[in-house]
Amino acid sequence: MFRQLKNIDTAFRYIRSFSIAVIVGNTLVAGFCYYQSYQLAGKVQGKIYVLANDKVIEAFADDRKNYLPVEARAHVRDFHRLFFTLDPDERLIQSNITKAMYLADASARGKYQSLKESGFYTSVISGNVSQRIEVDSVNVSFDRKPYPFRCYATLQIRRPTSITTRSLITEGYLQDAKASDNNSHGFLILNWTIIRNEDLNVVNR
After folding, report:
1. Which keywords annotate this record (predicted)?
2. Is 3 exposed, middle or buried (0-12, 13-18, 19+ CB in 10 A)?
3. Which pLDDT score is estimated for 67?
């Protein structure tokens, strides 16, 4: 009888040890899985996507500051390209202006309204005028927010009788904004002003 009790006690100890080992093993596996999931989630959240030359580039949030200058200059270029590219087509003009307005505050809309009320866009259409812009450089300072910028560009205005080249300088501020389909770089231009828009030369056709 004592032998039976001893065997039962031994079996119970084995079962208890085995159960403890299983519990510890499951706990370790669960902990490892949780840790791996946490690490993976952190990596996914740390990724951002940068649009450069119409291509999406994967980057990391920690490196966003390294992309700020590139994205900031691209945002300024995109806005000026949309605002100043003109053809004698009312729908095209309106389409470009609408896209440009997503990239800037009311200062840009005020400039557009002023040009519209003065008959500028009507004269572009009736005069069969085309205008193109070449952004020469964009200087942005990241020492303080919002980021002040200055844009240097050249305008070429083609009329049936002449081609005019103009020097354009604008300035304003860049404020961080939420990126979207209409604002891929995640900035908003504030207090935009034109400080120079002068003829460089005129060539008769």
Report:
1. Membrane, Transmembrane, Transmembrane helix
2. exposed
3. 86
Residue type, 35: Y
Phi, psi of 23 (to 5 degrees): -65, -45
Per residue, the 3-state secondary structure of 33-87, as one string, reads HHHHHHHHHHHHHCEEEEEECCEEEEEEHHHHHHHHHHHHHHHHHHHHHHHHCEC
Which range among 7-16, 97-106, 117-126 shows the weakest confidence by mean pLDDT? Answer: 7-16
Quote the tokens at residue 85: 């590219």
Closest C-alpha to 76, from 144, 8, 9, 173: 173
Give the number of other CB atoms < 10 A from CB of residue 124. 21
pTM of the predicted structure, to 2 decimals: 0.72
Q: Please report the sign of the dihedral spanned by the C-alpha atoms of residue 77, residue 191, residue 88, residue 156.
A: negative
The alpha-helical segments, DSSP class H, found in 85-177 are: 90-101, 106-117, 120-126
Token pair listed for 133: 């812009």
For position 65, what pLDDT does the model report? 74
The β-bridge relationship of strands 187-204 and 55-60 is unpaired
CA–CA distance, 180 with 168 (Å, rounded to integer): 29
